[in-house]
Every structure is written in structure tokens, then in C-alpha cells.
Amino acid sequence: METAEHFSLALHGGAGTITRAMLTPQMDQEYRAALQQALTAGYEILNGGGSALAAVETAVVVLEDNPLFNAGRGAVFNKHGKHEMDAAIMCGINLEAGAVTGVRNVRNPILLASHILYHSDHVFLSYPGAEEFARKQGLAFEPDDYFNTHQRFEQWQQLRDSDVFRLDHSHDKKFGTVGAVARDKAGNLAAATSTGGMTNKNYNRIGDTPIIGAGTYANNRTCAISCTGHGEYFIRNVVAYDISCLMEYKGLSLADASSLVVNGKLKEQGGEGGLVAVARNGEVAMPFNSEGMYRAAWVQGQAPVVAIYKD
């Protein structure tokens, strides 16, 4: 039931071939702890009466700062041994949004996206111009070494002399994007997503994460969505907006609309991935068509959920 005090938060840390056999007990525990840390940070803001925008921004910052995830500090290497990061954030109240692509040394790309939303007349900034704006806003920058984790370097070394790009950072498919969605006590929705993209990507490739309506979307009339997966498919199908439209124009529930797109349209085309979503009534959905998705959710009055595998 929708009430003025009902709030929810859901987040993800990537989807793909994630099975129990792939993760050691220690890695399983580390991922769960990281998801719980981000979930708690966002939930505390909502519980204190903070906005959905503040909650998703905070949750994503926590995930960006954790090298386990392909965003911020844990971003993968591109073809030239650099880190190109994308992010987007959107407000469901007025459809205002901020997005950024191709930034290299910004510590928290989601904060840059947020500053674009709040402090510019634009929605989407890219490459050097986005970094110039970040400097004017006083955002933190870090040297390359901050982002150069051993695991990501080893993954890049396997591909650097080839023309192969990897949808993931292991031999199996793993789409390393992070994101969060929330409904606050006032009933407002917000979504935020951040990624380091594909290992060994070339030509300044851009995925769905910073594209409003594809990988990130929020509208108080329907839902807030943050996607993770093979970005090309999410772009072609305008996934996040499609789910919102199914709810607004066909009257589908969040669960039915998101399942139709993720387990129907995307799967039929070979598009692998998933998403986290929250509806205007606080309902949460976390569908995915891959073997696993790092995910967590906390609905007011219920126990928090942290999960990784399909079963």
C-alpha cells in the first residue's frame, strides 16, 4: 500500500555469469558485505527523511569507492590502458537528469552527473568538457594509480594486444555496472547508475549507463530503473523507458513490465543482463536473465535482502 511514509531502496553491482562455483566463500562474503554497506548508507538517508536523489547518489558513491565493482575505483581498462567512466542520475519529480561519459580521473563519476543535474543547464556532458566542468565544481580527481587495481590490470593484459573487447572482466560474462533506485517518504523516485564499461573497449565506446531512458530512468508517474548488462541491447530497446511506458500506457505492474522486457524482449534478442526498479507505490523488482546479479533491496518495514545467485 502506498503511504506518505513508505520508502524503498534497491541497488545492483552487475549481472552475468555469476554462480556459486565461481566465487570462493570469502569473495561471496566480501560482495555481500559491500552490497549491504551501500544499502545501509542509502537506507539511512531515506529513513531520516532524505530525498530519493540523495539516497541513490550516496549508495552509488559507496559502490564506486569499492574496487570490487566496475565503477569508480574498480573501473576496467580500455584499449589504451586508461579508464573511461560513465554515469547518470535522474529525478522522478521533474524528469531532470545529469549524465557523463568518458571521464578518466574523476573519483566519483556519479557526483559529476549529480552536479550536471543541479548546477548546469545541460543533461549530458562528455570527455574533456565534462572533466573541465568537474574541476570548476571542485570535485575530487585521482591519479591513474588510484584506479589501477591488480585484478583489472591482469584482465586487460589478457586482451591488450588483440582487437577483442570483453563484455565482462572474467572469462565468463560479467557486466560490471553499479546502480541504485529509491522512493523516499515524500513519494518521489530517483535512479542512478555508474560504470567503467567494457575491458579493452576501443573508439570511446559508450554503453547504456549514461543514456537517459536506456540504462537509467526515473518518473514519479511510474518507476525508477537502473540497468546492467550488454549495453548495446539496452540502448536499442530503450529498456528503462520501455518499462515505464508499459506501466503508464498499458497499466502493467512493475513486476510484469520489467519481466516482459528483461525475460521477454531482451532474452529473445540475446541481450543478457538485468535491472533494479522501484515503482511509485514502493514496490521493488530486480529481474535478470543471466545466471546471477549482485543485488540488494530494503523496503520500509521489511528485512533487507542481499543476493547474488539466481537460486
TrEMBL record:
One of its GO terms (biological process) is proteolysis. GO terms for molecular function: hydrolase activity, acting on carbon-nitrogen (but not peptide) bonds, in linear amides; peptidase activity. Transmembrane segments: none annotated. The record marks G176, T177 as: Cleavage. Keywords: Autocatalytic cleavage, Hydrolase, Protease. This is Isoaspartyl peptidase. Substrate binds at R205, I206, G207, D208, T228, G229, H230, G231. It comes from the Bacteria. The active site is at T177. Gene3D superfamilies: (Glycosyl)asparaginase. It comes from Rufibacter radiotolerans. It holds the Pfam family Asparaginase_2.
